């Protein structure tokens, strides 16, 4: 059903909608068992300091190897997990697994490293979410500032539910990033109202470096971040040209294929050597 070969067959809009619907139903059912069947795993994308090149941390990215259909991209199954509520269990697993990996890196001597973890809205809306993270960090004896939770602007709409959770995490010392910055319901109000430490400039802007308008957007984001004392990281950096521009504009950190694709856990220590 998901095989790429099928895409070549011309389908009427109605047929393709039904195929997509069937695909969603099958995937949703299989996702339910994916954790216990060990089909989910994480890859880690390195984040580098823009001037020194030093690895400052990694972002954990979820993967699903379906037994029959192969690799399913997160853009496809994370929304399904969100719709069904499965994302709570999956998100807990991600958080715990990523933190365990971080602990291994710290124990190996790379004590400065940070781990970025993507969150979903429903995770953040659990009243005891801050307590859950605190438990994981204290069990593993991880310094809270070494964990960076990534949220998006759309999650901030539910201020009353989300703000107290973020404040509690902030007070505990957990780092908070605003992911995909510039693509969502951007409101400058969010930046001062919420306890944000870092902005991640969305890769769509980075990929259009060379176009004046997109460069202006990046310059503006960085200028604003500097005024608010926020760290800025650029995602999706693929070319030297993009890197040079970001260096000139004093972006702080970078991640992208120019440095490395996301790598399996087993290669993390190798990457640090
Ligand atoms: P994101 O958090 O914005 O992650 C960045 C995405 O860009 C990742 O895609 C990464 O593999 C990709 N990327 C990194 N560098 C480059 C580059 O140089 N060029 C290009 N073209 N792409 C690059 P991925 O792994 O497919 O993840 C997609 C999205 O799925 C993530 O976007 C995030 O929103 C979501 N996601 C991933 N893991 C999790 C998770 O554990 N929990 C939740 N809730 N969402 C997740
Ligand atoms: Mg992210
Ligand atoms: Mg992003
Ligand atoms: Mg994204």
UniProtKB/TrEMBL annotation:
Residues 24-273 form the EAL domain. This is Diguanylate cyclase. It comes from Mesobacillus campisalis. The chain holds residues 503 to 775 of 775 of the full protein.
